[in-house]
Amino acid sequence: MENQLEMPKEEKRIFRFTRRHLVLACTVLLIAAALVLNIVLFNNPTKDPTPSAPTGDSSTGDDTSTDTSGLDGYFSATQVSRQRARDEALEVLQGVVESESADDATKTAALLEIADLAKAMEAEANIESLVLSKGFTQCVAVINGDACSVVVNGTELQQSQISQINEIVYEQAGIMPQDIRIIVK
């Protein structure tokens, strides 16, 4: 009889354990989906606004001024979108931390995720500042786990510029060059 009374407690414990992990997994998946969606929507290298072959001197000059204003909008929109996605992710994680129904392990995992997001945001800001100091007029860095995408304005990058960007990302975020994607807009 005693074994039968103890079994429901074990089943209940297993159910809570599964439910907590499900909440944590859904939170992590939501954050990952927001970051991936941000990268896919705003770091698409196939939408390169620079023309592949100039059609004429006067039209190239006009297109350059139009592309510059379009690029300004691109970089601004990307930064705003990245910040919005991060704010939403932080809001979800903060909700988990403040939830009374969440257990200590789930709250600890959410706090660790918040710390990781804060570290990534700081590294992105440092990367952007340092890349701008190397002569680029605009830059957006997006860190997603162990990978980083860096979008800079320009036409073609020289090997020395690629090396500088790889070095900056490695120093600031510890991401290896094979996991760094440099996109020229």
Task: Outline the structure in words.
The chain has a three-stranded mixed sheet, sandwiched between helices. It has helices at 2-42, 57-98, 104-133, 159-173, and strands spanning 139-144, 147-152, 180-184. The chain has four helices and three strands; from the N terminus they run αααββαβ. By secondary structure, it is mainly α. The model is unreliable at 44-67 (pLDDT under 50). It is elongated and about 55 Å long. It starts with a helix and ends with a strand. The protein has a single domain, classed as Stage III sporulation protein AH-like (Helix Hairpins, Orthogonal Bundle).
Principal-axis shape: elongated
Could you say how many structural domains there are in total? 1
Low-confidence stretches are: 44-67
Assess the beta-strand content as a share of residues: 5-15%
Class, according to the CATH hierarchy? Mainly Alpha
Looking at the structure, the CATH topology is: Helix Hairpins
The Rg value, from CA coordinates, equals 23 Å
Summarize the SSE layout with pairings.
Blueprint: H1 2-42, H2 57-98, H3 104-133, E1 139-144, E2 147-152, H4 159-173, E3 180-184
Parallel strand pairs: 2-3
Antiparallel strand pairs: 1-2
Brief write-up:
The protein has 185 residues and is mainly alpha-helical.
Task: From the structure above, extract its key features.
single chain; 185 residues; mainly alpha; Helix Hairpins; 3-stranded mixed sheet; 3 strands
